[in-house]
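Subject: for your reference before the review

Hello V.,

The reviewers asked for a structural picture of the protein, and I figured it would be easier to keep everything in one thread rather than splitting it across files. Below is the amino acid sequence we used in the manuscript, unchanged from the supplementary table.
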Amino acid sequence: MKETFVHVTEWQPPDFRASVYIVYLIGLLACIAGLGVQLSASRLAVFIISAWLGFSYRRGFIVFIICNSFIFVRPIALRTILIQISNLGGADPIRQFAERYSRAICAGSLLSVAAAAAAAGFASIAPPPSVAPTQALYFARAQGVRGNVFNSYDFGGYLIFEKIPPFIDGRADLYGDEFQRRFFSVVDGTDVGAAERLFDQYQVSWLLLRPADALSSALRASGWAAAYDGPDGLVFIRPGRAP
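And here is what came back from the structure prediction:
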């Protein structure tokens, strides 16, 4: 799946210029060094494996974070006097706190749920235009466009939500490496002839593309006219194919 690792962001290595990754990593290393945490052989082995996954791709970094929560909790507890159960006569400090403030915890939980429900009632929850070309798709449906669609990669999930079979979507591993190679070479390239051959093979009737796609500019330069041209997407209708 070489094409997946090259083109799909979530399968690429984490970008440590982003604050969330570097802050977490620095905090973890500072905790280990500052407390003098030592790991047993089994915990160290799991840490090495999860770290390899985490630094290889962004999805793996989530696994790295989850694993660290149980790799380091006991070693850190043994090095931190304030949370050592042995210093509290063997009693569980979390249970003691919950029993002491049970009413306040219940009241706070209910207030939090009520506030979240109220906020959800007034908030406008919708996916961003970068993945949901709502106006472009509304135009296509209003024009009665039918047939197979060729879509930008990020639009696939929204098309499924709208009950339109996409050309490709985020389930990249299901499509195979060769299919992805051809798709990305077309959508990221300027060879309109290669694009036309791919459209003919899959009987594509219309296209739903991002304005930033190289193929969008190439089609315009070759004489294609966008039936819809908006900030959320472009709709191209192949002559004689749709609606």
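For the response letter, the relevant points are probably these. The two ends are 35 Å apart (CA to CA). Strands lie at 148-151, 204-209, 228-230, 233-237.

Happy to draft the paragraph if you're swamped.

O.
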